[in-house]
Records
---
Amino acid sequence: AQKVTQAQTEISVVEKEDVTLDCVYETRDTTYYLFWYKQPPSGELVFLIRRNSFDEQNEISGRYSWNFQKSTSSFNFTITASQVVDSAVYFCALSEASKLTFGKGITLSVRP
Amino acid sequence: KAGVTQTPRYLIKTRGQQVTLSCSPISGHRSVSWYQQTPGQGLQFLFEYFSETQRNKGNFPGRFSGRQFSNSRSEMNVSTLELGDSALYLCASSLWSRGNSYNEQFFGPGTRLTVL
């Protein structure tokens, strides 16, 4: 069975600090996809990134960066120079056919 | 392009009643998935429909059912509601998924169901 573990439940930082959100996954599939979603207080899940299992290149998008390491089954997400608007719950997810298995989420609070 | 829409946004029902939730996917998206989100269990997959056929199903009792119409719009139904069914129900659409080739899912704002 597929499993996604987000060991951190809540993180609180001061604005402009860098913060890394950890994600560890388990799967027997050789081809799979990993995702990060953001859920602001409004409730809607916002897609951030998709990564397939064959692409271990790190990705940077503005203040966001992702580190995918197949050897440790991790797909970590770093926010550089955090802002108050980054406050949300962040979910890591793993695809299994047409189903997404989500981690429990990490609540990030960015204080001004 | 309009996003995924879900109606109603909020719903209050009593135990034993049944409820139908609606989801309109992004135009051109043929796959619709449903998820239940609760504080205790987190986000859990309910089922996925593609071209009016249920292709995948999560571990939920038969009281939870769904369907998809020819225009890709989807409905989910919960019969004989229980207190534990109180949750945020999220619908997601994607262009397609073929085997292990996967497109990202785009989520709607959800329907918050409260069962009294």
---
Amino acid sequence: GNSVTQMEGPVTLSEEAFLTINCTYTATGYPSLFWYVQYPGEGLQLLLKATKADDKGSNKGFEATYRKETTSFHLEKGSVQVSDSAVYFCALSFSNSGYALNFGKGTSLLVTP
Amino acid sequence: DTAVSQTPKYLVTQMGNDKSIKCEQNLGHDTMYWYKQDSKKFLKIMFSYNNKELIINETVPNRFSPKSPDKAHLNLHINSLELGDSAVYFCASEGQDYGYTFGSGTRLTVV
């Protein structure tokens, strides 16, 4: 079946540190890949996405590159801020017509001043 | 102007009760979803509707029944609530180009 595996959290970093959150997937075919962020007490917001191999998604200083050869979509940010503290979800989907997002278990990030 | 709105935001109820959660989207999307987020933050798809037709019906107890009166609304009715139903329930809609938009969630607590 299709699945997403994320690194276990929580991840605790100091402000301005470099962030990597690993995400790998198992899928039959070539899914689209997503990173969603959930701030405390809120719903999910799309952070970035990539729809085909070698695409790079980027937003708010976060980046992730769709690597077909390693079936990975790792999230990176060069310098995190306290306001980046949230839960980050990697997800995959196959079409834009009723195929639901399949989420990883989420990685909690805490950034300290 | 909220794109995907859910009501209520919080719901506390006793075991055995029946309750409904409502969801409305004003994005003109054809597809809507219900997800359940458990206490460990794991998100799992429950149902999906496309233009009022049921598309996805995951392994969910039949005490849960979705209803879509039109493509802008997808409600979730839960009968005979159990302690294990306590979770945050998210509604989402999907438009073109993988545009999923989530509501802010309904935190259900069964006591």
